[in-house]
Amino acid sequence: MPRAPERDPRPEIPPGTLDLLILRSISREPMHGYAIVRAIKEQSGSTLLVEEGSLYPALHRLVRLKHVAAEWGVSENNRKARFYRVTPAGRKRLAADTDMWKRVSSAVTAVLEGRGLPPGEGATAC
Amino acid sequence: MLSLIHRTGDAAALERAIEEEFESHIGECAADLVAAGHSEAEALALARQRFGDFAVHAGACRREAPDERFPSVNHCLRSIHRARSSTGLQLLAVCMRYGLGGVLVLGACLMSIMSVEPGAGLGGPESDRLRTLFPIAQLAEAVIGSSLLWAFLGAVQAFAGALLITQRFAKIGAVIAFAILLNLLVVALAFNLERIGAVFALLLIADLSLLIWDLDSFQPLFRKPQRVIACEPEAGALADARWSWIGIAMVLATAGGYAMQLSPLLMLAFGFLIAAVGVVAFPFSSNSTRSLRAHARPQHD
């Protein structure tokens, strides 16, 4: 019996959304890197898997931009780990990026489903 | 703590922090795998495999933390970025480019006048005056006498000055002017010409200020590509094309005056009159005021 073509269950995270996912994950409570990966995986029903090669550079970038602060602590497994928390500037960015993402995703969905959005709900054309 | 490491620029500490954090991540992952039924050795090997290339990830983290090395250079570049958003300093930079460029072009005109007569440096009236500056007179006579070298020096000086005045190409003009002025300063110091040396030193300081103003553009010359801090395009007063048009008008006016054999001082006065009209008229034009106000708003990282 021929095998059905395999479908990759884990699509790539859309460009530019990793920062948003990280900020959202640590907005509730400070988390270390591994916990962030786990949280995003669980919250997305195992659809989104953040790779370590993307996560840590993104965390360093967010720290440099002062959207995230980091400090050493102890993990639930009693291991020394660096915990990240959102700064006030990071919360502002999270709110702005979340709003933008909702507008873009609803607009893309509307286009894909062939239904129009009411005027003014999406971005203007020019 | 990470921000503290970034501030202090302790590269070794950052390196250690990255390593510790990665080991912590692998340890956490291995603990989950052990809980899922793997042996400790298996779990650790699997966790390391899943983590991927340690060195590549560490390199990516280092690239995202440009403050880890040369923090003073980064601090300096960011301070220049902030200064460049000041309208007053922008106008000062524009005026300094006009001023320095004007001096270089005028100097080139004077050089040209000194060599109008073939061999004027060897026995002409200018030569007599130069001899009073002994011992540089011999050098000056030799350079003026070799008309090609003298013409070349004058042409390069006029070119650098014209580039500075155009604003659009002021960066390359400042680089060429730096070489010329440093050379002149060394000659003046070598022959104990203190007053002329002081003038060249002041001009060199002005030129250095312009180079520092545009320091971010020169980053690729002294930094690895991944460490270059993003350059911001010229904005506000500097982005206004009218400064370039005024500069071109100044260069043309000076060239016209030279062709008509006007007095160099008259050429200079005419050129600076054009610049003065521009400097006074610019802030009162509606477009400029709007662009300056827009640029003066706080910039977010």
Terminal Cα span of chain B: 21 Å
Q: Biggest interface in this structure?
A: A-B, 27 and 30 residues
Whole-number total of structural domains of chain B: 2
Q: Shape of chain A from CA axes?
A: globular
| Element-by-element helix/strand order of chain A | HEHHEEH
Q: What structural class is derived from the secondary structure elements of chain B?
A: mainly alpha
Features:
heterodimer, A: 126 residues, alpha+beta, Arc Repressor Mutant, subunit A, 3-stranded antiparallel β-sheet, 4 helices, 48% helix, globular, B: 301 residues, mainly alpha, 2 domains, 75% helix, disordered C terminus
Topology:
The complex is a heterodimer of chains A (126) and B (301).
Chain A: H1 18-28, E1 31-32, H2 33-43, H3 52-64, E2 68-74, E3 80-86, H4 88-113
Antiparallel strand pairs in A: 1-3, 2-3
Helix pairs in contact in A: 1-4
Chain B: H1 2-8, H2 11-35, H3 40-51, H4 54-64, H5 71-83, H6 87-114, H7 125-131, H8 136-145, H9 147-166, H10 170-190, H11 194-213, H12 219-222, H13 241-259, H14 264-281, H15 286-296
Characterise the protein shown here.
The complex is a heterodimer of chains A (126) and B (301). Chain A has 126 residues and is of the alpha+beta class. Chain A has one domain (18-113): Arc Repressor Mutant, subunit A, CATH 1.10.10. Helices cover 48% and strands 13% of the residues of chain A. Chain A is built from four helices and three strands. Chain A has helices spanning 18-28, 33-43, 52-64, 88-113, and strands at residues 31-32, 68-74, 80-86. In chain A, a hairpin with a 5-residue loop joins strand 2 (68-74) and strand 3. In chain A, helix 1 (18-28) crosses helix 4. Chain A is globular and about 50 Å long. Chain B is an all-alpha fold and 301 residues long. Chain B has two domains: 2-69, no CATH class; 86-296, no CATH class. Chain B is 75% helix and 0% strand. Chain B has helices at residues 2-8, 11-35, 40-51, 54-64, 71-83, 87-114, 125-131, 136-145, 147-166, 170-190, 194-213, 219-222, 241-259, 264-281, 286-296. The chains are: A alpha+beta (126), B mainly alpha (301). The A-B interface holds A 32-35, 38, 51-53, 56-58, 60-61, 63-66, 69-72, 75, 77, 79-82 and B 1-3, 6, 17-18, 20-22, 24-25, 27-29, 31-32, 50-53, 56-57, 60-61, 63-67, 301.
